[in-house]
Amino acid sequence: MAPQHGPRRARIAFSDSAAKQLENITSEAELHALDRALVVISVDPEAGEVLSGDSSGPRLRQYVDDVERVRLVYWVTALKTVVVVAFIEV
C-alpha cells in the first residue's frame, strides 16, 4: 500500500522586487517569521484577503500575520503557484 501524503503545497516564487527585499533581510528572527508566513500561504494560497483593484491583471492577495509581524502581497497562478510580488515586511 502506498504511503499517505498530505495535501500538495503550492510552489512559492518571488518577483524580482520581492527577491531584492528578501536579500535585505539579515535577522534570523525575521527569516523565521517570513518562513512561517510562506508555509501558511503554500498550504492555503487563499489564506490572504483579496486586495481591491481592477480585473485587468492578476488578483492580488495580502497575507498579514500580526503575531509574527509579517505582511506579504502575492497572487496565485492557475497552476497554484504563489508568486510573492512585493511588500515583504517583517
Concise overview:
This protein is an alpha+beta fold and 90 residues long. 27% of the residues lie in helices and 30% in strands. The longest helix has 16 residues, at 28-43.
Tell me what the structure shows.
It is a single chain. The chain is α+β, with helices and mostly antiparallel strands and 90 residues long. The protein contains 2 helices and 5 strands; from the N terminus they run E-H-H-E-E-E-E. The chain has a 5-stranded mixed sheet with strand order 1-5-4-3-2. The model has no long low-confidence stretch (mean pLDDT 83).
Using brief descriptors, characterize the structure shown.
single chain; 90 residues; alpha+beta; five-stranded mixed β-sheet; 5 strands; 27% helix; 30% strand
The total count of helices amounts to 2
What separation lies between the terminal Cα atoms? Answer: 44 Å
Mean pLDDT: 83
Order of helices and strands: EHHEEEE
Can you summarize the main beta sheet?
5 strands, mixed
Helical proportion?
Answer: 25-40%
Q: Which shape, going by the Cα principal axes?
A: globular
User: What is the assembly state of the chains in this entry?
Assistant: single chain
Compute the gyration radius: what is it?
14 Å
Q: Class by helix and strand content?
A: alpha+beta
Strand order of the largest sheet: 1-5-4-3-2
Strand content: 25-35%
How are the elements arranged and paired?
Layout: E1 11-14, H1 16-23, H2 28-43, E2 49-50, E3 61-65, E4 70-76, E5 81-89
Parallel strand pairs: 1-5
Antiparallel strand pairs: 2-3, 3-4, 4-5
